[in-house]
């Protein structure tokens, strides 16, 4: 779906992390991380795509910012802050990622 060195940005999002979510939460959605929050060796679209699992940061209007989830690239778990994300991936990317993701690893 993406070129090897492609960087994802706002044009790949359907909304920001602060806009209302249809079900009140962004849990179980694919978020797109800002490229500059990733270590240089992880700066690719596969690490920018991040499956949001839980945390107050998943709620656009919560006071907390923590978001726990997993990288698309390898399924490894990590914690980020709500402001580390460009936004929530658009519907096309959501569908593609859900169909092609290998799942969670430890």
Detailed description of the structure:
There is one protein chain. 13% of the residues lie in helices and 27% in strands. It is α+β, with helices and mostly antiparallel strands and 106 residues long. The protein is globular. The protein starts with 12 loop residues before the first strand and ends in a 6-residue tail after the last helix.
Q: Which keywords apply here?
A:
6 strands; alpha+beta; globular; single chain; 106 residues
Q: Which percent range describes the beta-strand content?
A: 25-35%
Taking the alpha carbons of the first and last residues, their distance comes to 26 Å
The total domain count is 1
Largest sheet: 6 strands, antiparallel
Largest beta sheet: strand ordering? 1-6-2-3-4-5
User: What does the overall shape look like?
Assistant: globular
Q: Compute the number of strand runs.
A: 6
Class by alpha and beta content? alpha+beta
Please count the helical segments: 2
Helix content: 10-25%
The radius of gyration is 12 Å
Mean pLDDT: 94
Low-confidence stretches: none
* SSE ordering: EEHEEEEH
